[in-house]
């Protein structure tokens, strides 16, 4: 992003698959991490500053956010398929295949995180492949409906003991819905649909 974009808050257009892969990666990380941090702060209340300095908690957060990252890739990737189908005439299965490959390429850019071991990282990738494959098994969803099969798994990753979570699941699910709607809107605004369609058409 150039200096003018930083100063005036203008995000550059998404004109090619590299741009789209970067968008999926950045927003997947944002979706996963923001929910974890905000939830932990809300549950800790006045003690949140103390909690976030404890080494044990910081390690737990690292484990949670890396385990949640593939969920973010699956959800944001599915948003990407929806926007591409709304903005282009590309065939659905081709869109699902191409966006799934971009989401996997984003995952594969990362080395095994220090918070996880290699076996867990491979398992998370395998689960991501399954989740991406499922996108093509149903018609396009509204962005607000995409979190439905992911919310339980995401909630279970929160770095707060189960006994302290309380009835917070609906709020976290609402967070995912709102955030993915925002991701949908941002991608719709930034997507250079003709350029992306031309590139994906050539690859197909």
Could you characterize what this model shows?
The chain is mainly alpha-helical and about 200 residues long. It has one domain (about 15-204). It contains nine helices and no strands. It has helices spanning about 5-10, 15-45, 50, 55-85, 90-110, 120-135, 150-155, 170-190, 195-204. Helix 4 (about 55-85) runs parallel beside helix 6 (about 120-135), helix 4 (about 55-85) packs across helix 8 and helix 5 (about 90-110) packs antiparallel against helix 6 (about 120-135). The longest helix is centred in the middle third of the chain and has 33 residues, at about 55-85. The protein is globular, with a radius of gyration of 18 Å. It starts with a helix and ends with a helix. Mean pLDDT is about 85; it is low at about 1-10.
């Amino acid at each position: 992003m150039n200096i003018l974009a930083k100063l005036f808050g203008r995000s550059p257009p998404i004109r090619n698959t590299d741009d789209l892969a970067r968008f999926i990666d950045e927003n997947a990380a944002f979706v996963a991490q923001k929910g974890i941090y905000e939830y932990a702060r809300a549950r800790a209340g006045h003690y949140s500053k103390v909690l976030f300095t404890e080494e044990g908690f910081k390690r737990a957060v690292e484990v949670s956010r890396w385990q949640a990252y593939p969920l973010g890739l699956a959800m944001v990737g599915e948003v990407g398929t929806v926007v591409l189908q709304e903005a282009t005439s590309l065939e659905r299965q081709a869109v699902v295949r191409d966006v799934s490959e971009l989401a996997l390429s984003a995952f594969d850019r990362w080395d095994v995180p220090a918070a996880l071991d290699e076996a867990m990282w491979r398992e998370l990738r395998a689960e991501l492949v399954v989740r991406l494959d499922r996108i093509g098994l149903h018609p396009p969803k509204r962005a607000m409906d995409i979190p439905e099969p992911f919310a339980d798994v995401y909630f279970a990753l929160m770095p707060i003991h189960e006994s302290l979570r309380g009835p917070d699941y609906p709020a976290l699910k609402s967070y995912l819905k709102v955030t993915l709607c925002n991701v949908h809107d941002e991608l719709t605004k930034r997507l250079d649909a003709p350029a992306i369609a031309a590139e994906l058409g050539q690859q197909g």
